[in-house]
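#random but structural
TW: two for the price of one
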Amino acid sequence: MNWLPILLIGLGGFLSGGVLALRKTNPTGAVVIAVFAVGCVAGGILWLLS
């Protein structure tokens, strides 16, 4: 299952695009999505390193 961490990193990248889109209209939502994006990217990288 080596495709799952790559999928997590891709999802994190997709969510960061959502952060950029929401940052001016809904800053609270952007922060929530940013937390999920960082979690996805960090989880995917740590999974690949383990």
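TW: number two ↓
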Amino acid sequence: MKAIFLVALLLTSGYAQKAAEEVRKEPHHDLHHDHQKGDEVRKEPLPEAEAEKAGGPGHHLKMHRAKDDPNYHGEHGSMIIPVPEYEKYGCSKCHKLHTKGIKSKTGDQDKKEPIAKQSCKQVRVKVCIENRTNGSGNQPMSPPLIHAASRSLGFYNKGVLASDSETRGFCDLAEDGVNSEAAEWLRRNVGDLEPATVDCGVLAAEDGIAPGDTACFELRLSCECAFINNAGVNVPKEDVYVNVAQMQIITNDNFWAAGDILITRENGNDFLYEEADASEPPFQAAFTSLDAGCEINNELCTHIPRSQCLALDACSAAQDAETCNALRAEENGEIDDGQCITGEGAGNKLSPEIYGCPGEVASMTIEVLEGAADGPNGPPAGP
């Protein structure tokens, strides 16, 4: 009996070992790869912590990355979508990967993709500027800076310190006619101002305005501040204040500015100065020169922007041509009234009779246009 029992035990052990070897030869299947055979989902994937321990499908999916697998499932690894979810994305008998534009292991393209967020129809604000220094001042104007915010900023008020203007990039505008630094500062910082402020749009124009000429520019308001609804009506979401600044080029640091012009109605549900509203003409006003307080008014050719310095007969001497706009005489003052060239500076080359501007230097109109904007912010809108 003992001998028979031992023989049976040995035979059973041999069969068990053979069966185990056959199982090991079978290809490995997990929940992630079952969709290759069209299998139904059997259960939810393991939570990540348990999958890490078990080495199951959650772990497997986590390890897929673009650098490791050209058919990866998204930059951060995807999840198998549970039954109620994957059916609505167009796959009734396989696992679908909810990743835009990525093919699953079956080679199928996702039949439905997440809908991209739609951009709003932007409200257009037309700003037209006339350079009024023709014959009195003869001041070419720099490319203007036009921006809008959800509250009054007071950046161009008399008494604002030059140090503040310097921080905001406005001294570059007032001294050199360069608007890009101020535009960049506005884009980066307006949203962080206190009290809470929304940046409604910034335009750093590319073209200046010659004496006697008029140019128009188009500012597109950001969707956070306004939009055009399905009925084609301009709808403000915030109060919108428009600001404009522009340098008189043949000066040390004179400019004109229109600060904090409110273009929404008091009740906050409509725009003032709309093109379609005959009862409200466009905003219109004239402006005199301001001194930024950034640079001492020595009225030297060497301290005005180079393009104009080289063009002026009064500054055409060789020694001036070599040093045009090479120097700055920092003043660290504050914004005050300006007269362009007064004849009181140390230069005595630039004539106040030609380049002085004691009166109006610019006029401006603002009008809110109908219809959505096409293309990027900023091309001239036409007179």
